[in-house]
Amino acid sequence: MKLPAFEYASPATLAEALALLAARPGAKPLSGGQSLIPTMAFRLAAPPLLVDLRKLKELEQIAVHRNGISLGARVRWRDIEDDERLKTAHPLLVAAVRHVAHYQIRNRGTVGGSLAHADLAAEMPGVAVTCEAEIVLAGKNGNRILQAADFFLGALSTALADDELIVEVRLPPWPASRRWGFEELSPRRGDFAFAGVAAFYDLDAAGRAANAHIGVIGACHRPHRMPQAEAALNGRRVDEAAIRDAAAAAEKAVEPPGDLHASAAYRRALVGTLLERALLYASR
Ligand SMILES: Cc1cc2nc3c(=O)[nH]c(=O)nc-3n(C[C@H](O)[C@H](O)[C@H](O)COP(=O)(O)OP(=O)(O)OC[C@H]3O[C@@H](n4cnc5c(N)ncnc54)[C@H](O)[C@@H]3O)c2cc1C
């Protein structure tokens, strides 16, 4: 279907992009276009102006340093997959991103576009919330930084103002000894998942789990951590009993939506199964 008519701008600087967004109510940033363009084609959105971010090269940076990892908003899924440093600096991120869509979409879709779009089954928002990422937003009054948990308000809904841009997401440092797992189930490879689980923990001197972080996507109206499942793991050896208890706690912690593809009961049971698999992988 043809897109509704729109004007197009391709600013050369961030300041120019912000000024364009502020000057035109309803204007939208265009990044990879993999969500926005289909949305327009289906007439679910008709922004009068698209502000293309393609010339903002400063948003394409991946930085790995002592304080963690910084991903510019225009970093694509493929950039993450191809970055050798991230395989050890953040293996959970790399594993999650491998589940995003198909090659062609991973070649264009970006971190910032995914965070702003906030699909409830998207992997990047789930990783951001699970890992306590910070999301850096630029606006006419300067930058503000939000915790990922405060950024996502609901399905396709965030704390982003109309005239703001996501410029960066910051992930805390990742110890080399950290145990982690990412599991999801989708109808076909590359489709959005029915549900997904991201999990990590560290080991204390006695070999017990500490600092467990367990997040869920798809089985809730926004990505969130599951403190009950984390509590079921912390302070214990990650054996069969601990994994079973964490999975049972996770099933109780979600309020999944039911739809054409999967009932709420199915998604609830799936979350437990996915967490079992993720923890088995982590404890291997
Ligand atoms: C067939 C198909 C399958 C897919 N499967 C998956 C999947 O399994 N998992 C998954 O996570 N995603 C999936 N996607 C979505 C894909 O990952 C998108 O690329 C992503 O959600 C949006 O990124 P984008 O760069 O294309 O953003 P765009 O489409 O350009 O923009 C999306 C939204 O974000 C806004 N935006 C973009 N950049 C910024 C910014 N820097 N600051 C503020 N707002 C911004 C836009 O205005 C728009 O509202 C799929 C898409 C398709 C078409």
Can you characterise this structure?
- Helix content is 35%, strand content 25%.
- The radius of gyration is 19 Å and the shape is globular.
- The longest helix has 19 residues, at 264-282.
- The model has no long low-confidence stretch (mean pLDDT 97).
- The protein contains twelve helices and 14 strands.
- Strands 4-5-10-6-7 form a five-stranded antiparallel sheet. It has a four-stranded antiparallel sheet with strand order 11-12-13-14, sandwiched between helices. Strands 1-3-2 form a three-stranded parallel sheet, with helices on one face.
- Helix 10 (227-233) packs antiparallel against helix 11 (240-253) and helix 11 (240-253) packs antiparallel against helix 12 (264-282).
- Bound molecules: flavin-adenine dinucleotide (FAD).
- Residues 28-36, 38, 53, 73, 100-101, 105, 108-110, 112-114, 116-117, 122-124, 160, 165-166, 192 line the site of flavin-adenine dinucleotide.
Beta-strand portion reads 15-25%
Largest sheet: 5 strands, antiparallel
Order of helices and strands: EHEHEEEHHHHHHEEHEEEEEEEHHH
Shape: globular
> Total strand count, please?
14
Average pLDDT value?
97
Bound molecules: flavin-adenine dinucleotide
How far apart the termini lie comes to 49 Å
Radius of gyration from the alpha-carbon trace, in angstroms: 19 Å
The helix/strand class is alpha+beta
Largest sheet strand order: 4-5-10-6-7
Query: Given the structure, what is the number of helices?
Result: 12
- How much helix is in the residues? 25-40%
Low-confidence stretches: none
